[in-house]
Amino acid sequence: MTMTVAAILEAESADRPYGKSQPLKLVDVELAPPQPGELLIRIDAAGLCHSDLSVIDGNRPRPLPMVLGHEAAATVLETGGEDDEFAPGDTVVLTFLPTCGRCLPCVTGESYLCEPGSQANGAGVLLRGGRRLSHAGRAVNHHLGVSAFAGHAVVDRRSAVKVPKDITPEIAALFGCAVLTGVGAVINSAKVRPGESLAVFGLGGIGMAAVLGGVAAGANPIVGVDPVVHKCALATDLGAAQAVTPDDFDAARSASAPRGFDVAVETVGSVAALKQAYNSVRRGGRVVTVGLPNPKDELSIAPVSLVGDGKTLIGSYMGSAIGRRDIPCLIGLWKAGRLPIDRLLTSVSPLSDINILMERLANGEAIRQVVKPHVDRA
What is the pLDDT of residues 157-178, one digit of tens each? Predict the structure, then answer.
């Protein structure tokens, strides 16, 4: 049994500001030893994502109590038996959907839709079943098979991708969600071709990664959309031809893509943003959505536009990415200078600041914030 500190969410829909209401409580938790096919890991860095925030604010209901956090870099401390791939000391990036390798999506090349992995995530358990976390005598749920807002975690080996040791943890962590999802939405889901025009709605970590993915794919022009002005400025620094607020978007579209954009990527999780994205593309255009709105929300579009205008609306989970294939490729692009994702890093903080950081995320102040759980004990 391993004892570690973790940020537990006991109840959703806490009052804001989160720095005052403290929805995430730092407590000592017990970690059961890893079972065969599992890993005990030390969390070296974990990124804050809207998918974490959407559990706190109730837009993404999950079984509680739960240790949140799903974007992380870690060091393997122990394997649950003999392992031909992982060993103590390995550096890994965690992916938020473990893949069984046997279900229909897995065997047809769409492991990002793994059915047992999705079911386990929804139930708050690991892929092999059950929970390895407990606090005060009761089981605690895992978030997306990772639960990275903690000093340590037990994960299924299929949630881990081994990466080079020469990447700093705060950069490596971003490949697990922001980069995988944002770049993947552009390259894997939309299959953007050189010279195609691209609009990106929402310029948080995933949206900025989509901008970088568009630059790497040769999209031109790229227009970013976000109500926060400083995010618009960063998007242009990263290669967008223009970045505007939603109110100014129609004018920008008329100037940049009079016929409409070839591709639009929506990362907000907002019905209004998705509808604006859908309306922004030309006849024959492609719209990719990676945002996670409240499950009760519904999108209203004219069905005739799907046929009459030949538009395509694509849902993209995890950037339609296969972690073990795509994470090493994306790291290679970063090392080659083609994905400057270090520009997305807003701050690195101790885990004790988690509620303050969540409020900054909710306010739209940050791109990607990272916590380093072991900073608290330095």
Answer: 999 999 999 999 999 999 999 9
